[in-house]
Write a structure and sequence with these properties.
The chain is of the alpha+beta class and 158 residues long. It has three helices and five strands; from the N terminus they run H-E-H-E-E-E-E-H. The protein is 19% helix and 25% strand.
Length: 158
């Protein structure tokens, strides 16, 4: 009786252990210095690059004057899609003339905006095949007879 209770307890513990999420760390990983430690007005592009390394991305519209350091944590439970549980985006803006840091701003997951994707498709030109035509399309087409000239690695006739 005690042995079966111990087996049931062990099985329950194993079952609960299987419910633990798989944690994933993606993006910029701060090792020695954090992006929030950048000093406005004193640090330059060179010092930020030496301290933090290459940014995750730069701004598309402001050229090389805005750098982004992005990191996120995801959790995935068995047989489910990964969900972002934590996101941190540090935006470092530089002055145009002297390349000194003008502003440092940190954005979180709650600052993000959902963008609705367009579900319409662009039509392609040409003939649309039915499922049956796709499955049976090559059945009637035979293979060409092989000759000695088609044999790979064979000697060419002189």
């Amino acid at each position: 009786m005690a042995r079966s209770a111990a087996l049931i307890g062990a099985a329950a513990l194993l079952g609960l252990g299987a419910c633990a999420p798989v944690i994933g760390q993606h993006g910029f990983q701060a090792i020695d210095a954090k992006p929030m430690d950048v000093a406005v007005g004193t640090d330059t592009k060179e010092t930020v690059l030496a301290r933090l390394g290459t940014p995750s991305t730069t701004s598309t519209f402001e050229g090389d004057n805005v750098w982004y350091y992005i990191t996120q944590t995801t959790e995935r439970y068995t047989y489910q899609r990964a969900q972002v549980s934590q996101r941190s985006v540090t935006e470092i803006t530089f002055n145009e003339g002297d390349s000194k840091v003008a502003a440092v701003r940190t954005l979180g997951l709650e600052d993000g905006v959902q963008v609705a994707m367009e579900s319409r498709e662009t039509p392609t030109r040409g003939r649309r095949l039915t499922i049956l035509e796709q499955l049976l399309g090559n059945v009637a087409r035979g293979q060409l007879p092989r000759t000695d000239e088609d044999d790979p690695g064979a000697r060419r006739p002189d």
